[in-house]
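Loading example: each entry is read as two labelled lines plus one structure line.
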Amino acid sequence: QVISNLFSDAQKAIAGHRKLVVGLRKIQEACVYETPAGDKSKTLRDAFDEEDFNFEFSRCVLRLMSIRRVEVVGDRLMKFVAAFLKCANAALIPAGDGDEAQYQETPASRLIAQLLSLLLQFTSSKEKTVRYRATQLIAQLINSLDSIDDEHYVLLETALLKRLKDRESTVRVQAVLGLGRLAGQDGEDEEITNNGLSNAEGLTSKLLHSLRNDPSADVRRALLLNLPLTPETLPYLLERARDTDGATRRVLYSRLLPNLGDFRHLSLSMREKLLRWGLRDRDESVRKATARLFSERWIQDCANASRDEGVGSSLETCSPDMDGLLELLERIDIVNSGIESGVAGEAMGEFWKARPDYVNEVVFGDAFWQQLTPESVYLVRTLNDFDKGKTNNTVQEKMPEVTTLAFHLMQHAHNLLRHLENDGIQAENRAEEDTVEKEFVVEQLLYIAKTADYSDEVGRRAMFHHLRDLLASPLLPDEITKLVIEILRNICGNEPTGEREFCGVILEAMAEVHDVIAPETPHVDQEGDESFHSARSELSDSTPTKPFQSQGAGTAAIQQLNEMKAVQEIMVNMKCLHIAQCMLQNVEGALQSNAQLVTMLNNLVVPAVRSHEAPIRERGLICLGLCCLLDKKLADENLTLFIHCFQKGQDALQLTAVQVLADILVTHPSLMQSPDADPDVRRIIAKIFASGMKASQAPEVRSATTTAVCKLMLTSVIQDEDLLTQIANLYFDPMTKENAGVMQTLSYSLPVYCHSKRENMELMANIAGGVMHAAVELSQDLEEGAEMVGLGVVGNMLTDWTDARKLVIQDEIAMDWDAVGRRRSQAVNGDIHLTLAQRVLERALHHGCSREERKAQMSMLGKLLVNGNSRLDKLESVNNLVIEAIDGNLA
Amino acid sequence: QVSAVPKKKEKEPFAIDFHAPLDPSIAEMIYTPASSNAAISLSKAQWKSKTRNLLPDDKHFNSKQLLRLFLKPNARMGSRRLGHGNA
């Protein structure tokens, strides 16, 4: 009775547990030991011996088994039992003894053994509550006891492994809590158990299997937090960064990773992936957790290391450490992750936001600018970006003036160019790595220059001339060329005169590039007209180190020389076309009004399109496409060329063709829409888009075509029922899941398309019956093991897409004018859903309609918006169809 | 008054009377083992997840991709008509 009193008290609150544990211990001691002194306990011992105590204790535990999961009382009592046994177990084992003592029987160990046997029996109970409580208590005991005898160890493991596959996820979670501890111990000291190491590995691998496969996110999350951290488990744990469950992903970033220890133990590619996945997560809380991880934990690992090796691992944030920050950037491989699509930009944005202490601390002196490394330049560049996004740009005082910036930029750019010139001579790997780093530095400086303020005329002029000279260097890498051109565009200003100045300066530089590398006549250019002789001498001068020079004279040498010439010709062309492309991307004025552009089109682009060299042809086509965007007539003339490219070309060419066609049509919608547009062209283009989305196409082509179609339909350039049907079908097709590009484009675009315009919605309602039918057929043709969204889901989406209440546009039908001429909004009518009902019912009444399809159709009808505002004739015809359906016993 | 009765019942905290003997129906519930292992386990089909419960590759599709040209990613669609392009 005293025991049950204690249990009764223990269920009330957790606060008094310590006292109650002591009380229970006293009773146990009294029952178990012969206490020579003290008559009171002597009498108790006479009345109750150890067996009685254990029986009574078990009886109370038994009562816990039926407490439903949601009751806090149950959890309190579980904790109480575990706390008591821990206390009893610790007290009864004589401290400081050797191995024998561990295996000695004690009253506590006998009690535990009895209890465990009881609990094991319950783990296969029919009732989920009993299984839950039994598993929970076992897990608690495993976690609070220091050791468990071998016999029970094996039994417990077996029982828990069974519960790991329990029908109830809540039971599985408890099993994980127990097994996680067992798996953790295996690594440390349990290797001596008779089952040996293979057993330990077996357990961990079973848990890892569940981590990947358990359908419940709660179970996976429990595993994530309870599995031992070892080199074997780590890849599986980190993989959860892409778990379908947001809370599981967040736990990885907010709990597992901060406790993992130094992040520098992770591989370089893993660091990048974790940052990228976390900072670009669809769930904001995951993004925040990742940002904290980066700007608090990871920086700390580096800051500590740079301060003193190994000693200071304190977790509190200490004062800013610039060397630490530079190391952090190095540790995330800034040269690769700092490129435009790389994640480092986001990471540093978050860093500056979270660490104003670092923002205040940085200073950039002259020496800093002269000795830029990829890390330090990236630091300035991201701080500059961060600062430009704010209203009070405090950092700008730390940045150099445009003139100074231009000076530093040139220093580094010339350094790079000198390096590139020597590159052919030193063939060491070191040189290549160096080149990449030097390129990176220049690129980052250009990004800073891109945002600079050019209102100061001196600085503007300095930058302009420097960049223009740079552009004329034939060795300038493509990415840098692109940036230089973009900055020049900014500097020239937005007016038409500015644009003409811009084109002029670029074309001038292009001509220089042309002259420097190809003094002889490539077939592209009619002007360069020098003799073959001079070209040859030029070539041999510039390539004294090439081995073939020494190989005998005669025809072989000449042939090689010709080959060299051809290669160089291609290079010149590619370079010029690249410059042209970057320039055209930044031009908006009409083509015909700019004579220089027309000349370039005729002398460079048109010959390139006709070239036999595939890469040249492709760049030529892109340039031609860009020119078409500037001139409708040119576009009209070349539509058939791009159509031809799609029909006959390889994947890469098809991709270009689809993109060019889409851009042309978006820019010149009248080519498709005006009354005098060629109906044949319209038909062929629709056909091309339709075939571009077919499963037989390359994934990138499919994805680009889908985006193109969505874009053109959203802008109403194309209104095509067949294409709409095709993309709707594509959306529900299980095959599409494999192409994330197509899938995500559609799941974004379809609702936007339908909800943005009444005509679009009507079009969708009109085809809904057919789309549903196609979905039914798809679900019937499913291959073994393939999964598809349920027909109910399909129905819900179709009704949602056609719900007139969700139209965002207020058009004439939605609005009208009241008696005094004020605009007012009309109640939404059900016309569109009536159209849907009509189409669906027509299908349902068709002979060939299966039961399954009808079921899905009927459940759609129940969710439609039908009201008295709707058109009478529509109501009537739907009504008739409904009557017909009821007569035919369809519903 | 009638409605007050169930309300009161809800508020009363759950507690176990450890002194009272075990209710036979509860005892039966506790001691009845499952008819078979399968009855209390996950079905085999749920043991394995095809996707490993991982998200597909995120393409971060957004309105920007619909509003820009393929060839001129920096220029927004329609800017020619709105801007200064009529020169």
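Helices of chain B lie at 4-11, 24-31, 63-67, 79-82.
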